Amino acid sequence: MEVEAHIDQLPIDLLAHIFVLITSFTDLAQASSVCKKWKVAVKQSLALRENLSFAGMEDG
Question: Domain limits at 15?
């Protein structure tokens, strides 16, 4: 029997602290497009962090 994770039940504050661990802007941009809740959590994580890497971003 397989148990599914219910990440959608995590509070936004906890998601934000998880997203602080992501250092790639590209990865955060992708995470913010998952759903409205994740978008809010990514915005909160940006306010909590001290630095952010733009390495790997394509020049456009």
Answer: 11-48
Contacts of 18 (CB under 8 A, 6+ apart): 10, 41, 45
25-32 and 36-48 helices, crossing angle to 10°: 150
Query: How many domains is the chain built from?
Result: 1
Instruction: Tell me the pLDDT of the chain (60 aa) as tens digits.
Output: 666 668 878 999 999 999 999 988 899 999 999 999 999 999 999 988 776 666 655 655
Residue identified by tokens 């998601």 is 15
